[in-house]
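Supplementary notes for students who missed Thursday's class. We covered one full example, reproduced here. Read the sequence, then the structure, then the short commentary at the end.
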Amino acid sequence: QVQLEESGGGLVQAGGSLRLSCAASGRSLYNNVIGWFRQAPGKEREFIAAITWNSGMIFYADSVKGRFTISRDSAKNTAYLQVNSLKPEDTAIYYCAGRLYPPRGTNWYLPPYDYWGQGTQVTVSS
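Structure (token representation):
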């Protein structure tokens, strides 16, 4: 069983940056995918980005390309989401989640994800 814990959220002015962390414990993330999602008040949860733990293959949602960067540190069993040029509409709870890499590899970044962190709040002021 893998436990995920996000950190790094906070209050930031528009145009600012944050680095969100997703620390995993319980077992190795070998052969897993880690994804980042966010949910704004009154809106559905939105996929942001995902990374494969073994090879570091990455996929981004179009809405965050060029502003957000996903990465991982295998030695620390931690994934990261660097969020730059923040806008008020980026205000949300940010979650990381994990799943096994699918056997065929097709659409490997898509839900469903099997285990989730508790989320970290990001608030962007205008």
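Commentary. The mean pLDDT is 95. The longest strand covers residues 92-100. If anything here is unclear, bring it to office hours.
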